């Protein structure tokens, strides 16, 4: 019960921060647009390539390795974008909780940690279902 209460308090505090700074909502919007563009940039070239490798008679191992590298790059870039914008959101929330006024330009907090974010995106993996 104590965990539930703590979670509820954190959720309420987060909602208060969002109510005070609606411009923080720009981050998930930009992140979503970026993820759609990334999806398109991978899907468009991948579709003809996948169809041609199936019909070209390439060995199955070649297909698997190429698909693996392609999928790994896709996941890495997606995770990088998500973590990058989440870092900016956390920076803004931290600023707000210190009684200062954050601005959406707070992307510099993420920009200063781009190598750490890239490292985290590299080792992060999707949660298993």
Descriptive overview:
With 129 residues, the chain is an all-alpha fold. The protein has five helices and no strands. Helix 2 runs antiparallel to helix 3 and helix 3 packs across helix 5. It is elongated. It starts with a helix and ends in a 6-residue tail after the last helix. The relative contact order is 0.12. The mean pLDDT is 76.
How many strand segments? 0
Distance between the termini: 25 Å
Low-pLDDT sequence parts: none
Strand content: under 5%
Mean pLDDT over all positions: 76
Major sheet: none
Structural class: mainly alpha
Helix content: over 70%
Helix count, DSSP H or I runs of 4 or more residues: 5
| Rough outline | elongated
Features:
0% strand; 129 residues; single chain
In short:
Helices cover 80% and strands 0% of the residues. The model has no long low-confidence stretch (mean pLDDT 76).
